[in-house]
Amino acid sequence: MASANDEIEALIALMARLPGLGPRSARRAVLHLIRRRGALMAPLAAAMAHVAETARECAVCGNIATGDLCDICLNPARATGEICVVEDVADLWAMERGQAFRGRYHVLGGTLSALDAVGPDELGIPRLLERTRAEAISEVILALNATVEGQTTAHYIAEALEGSGVSVTSLAQGVPIGGELDYLDDGTIQAALRARKRF
Amino acid sequence: MDWRDEGTILAVRGHGETSAIIEVFTAAHGRHAGVVRGGASRKMAAVLQPGSRVALVWHARLQDHIGSFTVEPVVSRAGVLGDRLALAGLNAVCALLSFALPEREPHPSLQSASEGLFDALSTAAPGWPLAYLRWELLLLEELGYGLDLTRCAVTGSRDDLAHVSPRTGRAVSRAGAGDWASRLLPLPECLLGQGPASPADLAAGLITTGYFLEHRLAPDLGDRPLPAARARLVAMLGRM
């Protein structure tokens, strides 16, 4: 096997720690970068160095930004009185890809977990409650995962907002676009049937 | 080494990028952990939820290895997700079983009672809070901290039992309690298996079982605090 020098081996080892990459795919990626050093590797290294220096959590919503506030929180057009609560930044990005929601977000940074002793204070729940008061929020949309932990967290937030005058809604659960009933699990079919609507 | 059984999932943790480590409660093998290859996939996400009943094949090279599970769904209990109180109940049952049960020690009667309770929770059957209270009593009994509620520890009488001694776990009648009544734990009739339970009776019963879980069971398990999921359920039942 051809041996690379120590610096390149160190780069391969670092790349192999990325999600979706193993030692072999990291080696391929590094080789590809080296072959396109000027067009790809140098700009990538510069972009990574810049983001490593500037990336931080948005002080309001918990999104990742390169300033104190993220673009969504800075955009006055998104002050619609609606907050969409998500578990993780990846969920926020997924919602943004859908381009269906034009309000603001709140990233919890996890879910309540008895097993891992994650309680409301470890998440951004107190900050969310404060935001609903400070920003005159009329609707909180709970876009949390349809898992036991996700829904436990959703119920906790809904209960905490009871009596606040804020409308609490959640994403529908049911048959996904392109989904075939035969391949759906029992729980999804039950949820879809419960959430049926007039056609 | 391998075995086949059915069980209910108590906990799921990610393991690397693609696998998961699950903890299940089975009749013949008790609380048992194992790796599910591909357990982090979207396809498996709906199956690997706490409370789901699954068919399992466990395989390991040696008995004391963690081993790997092949999992197939048997009963989805996703119905519980829409009910705030029942979901809190499911979380409390899973958390307490995971907290209290020794690994790989069968408790068939507790397993059977837990299955019944999980079914009641998933359909939000009326009366499940009372079933939960009795399940906690059974949990204590199975783990060697059972309460003796058959007769008064002071007078020997079987009538008018109204208290439980926090020291011995034995019932005490109103007459036997005398001036000590305020230092004893409540014994509502529903803990004796008599009649339905009012919210106040339930709360009283949970105070008593909670005392023994916290002050007898937990110290013997390394003095860990009881799972917060139980406290959340008790608080929600108190607001009923």
TrEMBL record, chain A:
Q: Does the keyword Glycoprotein apply?
A: no
| Keyword Metal-binding in record | yes
| Any GO BP | DNA repair
Q: Which PROSITE patterns match?
A: TOPRIM
> Which residue numbers delimit the Toprim domain?
81-176
InterPro entries assigned to the protein according to its UniProt record, in alphabetical order:
DNA_Rcmb_RecR (IPR000093), Rcmb_RecR (IPR023627), Rcmb_RecR_Znf (IPR015967), TOPRIM_dom (IPR006171), TOPRIM_RecR (IPR034137)
Q: Which GO terms describe its molecular function?
A: DNA binding; zinc ion binding
What ranges of residues constitute the C4-type zinc fingers?
58-73
Q: What is the superkingdom listed in this entry's lineage?
A: Bacteria
Alphabetical list of Pfam families matching this protein: RecR_C (PF21175), RecR_HhH (PF21176), RecR_ZnF (PF02132), Toprim_4 (PF13662)
Alphabetically sorted, this entry's keywords are: DNA damage, DNA recombination, DNA repair, Metal-binding, Zinc, Zinc-finger
SMART domains attached to this UniProt entry: TOPRIM (SM00493)
Q: Which family does it belong to?
A: Belongs to the RecR family.
Q: Its function?
A: May play a role in DNA repair. It seems to be involved in an RecBC-independent recombinational process of DNA repair. It may act with RecF and RecO.
Protein known as = Recombination protein RecR
Identify the species of origin: Phaeovulum veldkampii DSM 11550
Q: Which gene encodes it?
A: recR
From TrEMBL, chain B:
Where does the DNA replication/recombination mediator RecO N-terminal domain lie?
1-72
Q: Could you tell me the Gene Ontology terms of the biological process aspect for this record? A: DNA recombination; double-strand break repair
Mind listing the UniProt keywords for this protein, alphabetically? DNA damage, DNA recombination, DNA repair
A Pfam cross-reference name: RecO_N
Under the heading Gene3D superfamilies, the entry gives: Nucleic acid-binding proteins, Recombination protein O, C-terminal domain
Q: Which GO terms describe its cellular component?
A: bacterial nucleoid
Question: Into which family does the record put it?
Answer: Belongs to the RecO family.
Q: What does this protein do?
A: Involved in DNA repair and RecF pathway recombination.
Q: What is this protein called?
A: DNA repair protein RecO
Gene behind this protein: recO
